[in-house]
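In this section we walk through a basic example: taking a raw amino acid sequence and producing a predicted 3D structure, encoded as discrete structure tokens. The instruction is simple. Fold the sequence below.
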Amino acid sequence: AEFPVTYRAEQVAVIMRWVNAGESGVVIGSSGTGKSNLTGFLCSRPDAVAPHVRDDPDQYCLLHLDINSLPALTVPFFYRGMGQALQDAAEALGPELQQAMQQLTERRLNWEDAFEVLIFLQKAHRLVIHQAGKKVLWLLDRFDEACRRLEAQPLNSLRSLRDQFKGQL
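The resulting token sequence is shown next.
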């Protein structure tokens, strides 16, 4: 469904206040309350986000990972989902970034090797953040399920990733 630019305006404003403050946040609600619609809306409607950011809205790269879309909720699939979102973003950000991302992914990754994959994610974020000049905003739909079912350390590694790109991720 195509939502108007004013869809969930109050919630969009709150989420973007978190972003402007450099904070992470959680949207909580019962099943069917529209959390997934909200994350999809945020990613697909930069015109709804733009009035709420203090920087140039074109500086933002909103990445969406729907945990429900993964074939299984495992660390390798979780990381692969993140990697795919970064690759999709690179395609949308132009041929130069797409080529750089392709070079990064030419070597076949062992998705079972969490360390190797984290290095890939660091490099992919570096491309989007430094080469494309974007601030990356991850919208993780059903992250609560990942927190329940995955071990703590892979999720803690996301905090480390965020800390490497303070103010940009």
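Looking at the output, two observations stand out. The helical segments are 9-21, 35-44, 46-49, 75-92, 95-105, 114-131, 143-149, 152-164. Strands lie at 60-66, 135-141. In the next section we compare this with other chains.
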